[in-house]
Write a structure and sequence with these properties.
297 residues, mainly alpha, 15 helices, 81% helix, 0% strand
Length: 297
């Protein structure tokens, strides 16, 4: 019986491999046509604009390029962008882990509502989200008079920029972790509890090692969106040069003032940050793939 089973198993594997090859056996014209369309789209809409940014940034030489980056308003915009990201990303990290843990490990009323609310920033325009904060914390908003009495500023100040950034980056960590935790199930956590592990020990030694690559991936995406956000931040910032302008807003102001070399210089810095993020993202995906292969072996 074992020999017959082996033969059947081998036949099944051979059939599966044949079907897999047959499913991808297309005429060369079709394959090259699809590849040409993909590369053309990539070149026109992604690669060409990226190259243009760096060419325009360096058109007047390195001296002008570095002068645009170290200019006080530009430096203030860079620091504010990094500050907003440094605050919003950890906050969304804590929320994302907590929300994913609650949704995947427990059953409770309102679970589907929580999942829907997590996706809300994906469906709401960033400009609308910024307007919401103005209506709530602005001078004529719900809490505006109280904030004025206590000399507190939210809108047109750093807190408003951080709140807007937190809102638009809200779903990224949770949305990376929820499917991953659901696929892993609860067996390992339940086994750890049976063996006497406490909740924190179970999370630290069982759950976190299983989701670390997905968690890091979500943090990278969250950080990329935080640094590049424009719409929501534009509404709540007030466009105060040297105080509430982030890098994307500073680029817009420079471009509207016809300071094209300076605008493209700051834009190129944003592009460099995006490329670094892409490299880190690729590395994380590679490490996650290796870890998955090792676990299967």
């Amino acid at each position: 019986m074992s020999g017959a089973a082996a033969v059947l198993h081998g036949s099944a594997d051979h059939a599966a491999r044949f079907e897999s090859k047959a499913a991808t056996r297309e005429p060369a014209l079709v394959k090259w046509g699809i590849l040409a369309v993909s590369l053309t789209f990539f070149s026109i809409f992604l690669l060409l604009p990226l190259i243009t940014v760096f060419v325009e940034a360096l058109r007047k030489g390195w001296d002008v390029y570095f002068a645009a980056l170290i200019e006080p308003d530009a430096w203030a915009a860079i620091k504010l962008t990094l500050t907003a990201a440094a605050i919003s990303v950890p906050l969304n990290l804590v929320f994302g882990v907590a929300a994913a843990w609650a949704i995947t490990k427990f059953e409770f009323r309102g679970k589907h509502l929580l999942i829907t609310l997590i996706d809300l920033p994906f469906s709401v325009s960033p400009v609308v989200s910024g307007l919401i904060y103005v209506l709530v914390f602005g001078a004529q908003g719900w809490f505006g008079p109280w904030l004025s009495e206590h000399d507190l500023k939210v809108v047109f100040a750093v807190p408003g920029i951080v709140l807007a950034t937190v809102f638009v980056t809200f779903p990224f960590v949770a949305r990376e972790l929820i499917p991953l935790m659901e696929a892993q199930g609860r067996d390992e956590e339940e086994a750890a509890v049976v063996l006497g592990a406490r909740g924190w020990q179970t999370f630290w030694y069982v759950t976190l090692p299983n989701v670390k690559w997905g968690l890091l991936y979500g943090v990278i995406l969250c950080n990329a969106r935080a640094m590049g956000e424009f719409g929501a931040v534009s509404v709540v910032s007030g466009h105060i040069r040297g105080q509430t302008n982030t890098m994307p807003l500073h680029v817009e102001i420079l471009y509207n003032e016809y300071q094209f070399a300076a605008a493209f210089a700051v834009a190129s810095l944003l592009a460099l940050l995006a490329l670094v993020t892409l490299v880190i993202k690729t590395w994380v995906e590679h490490q996650a793939g290796k870890a998955s292969q090792q676990s299967e072996e």
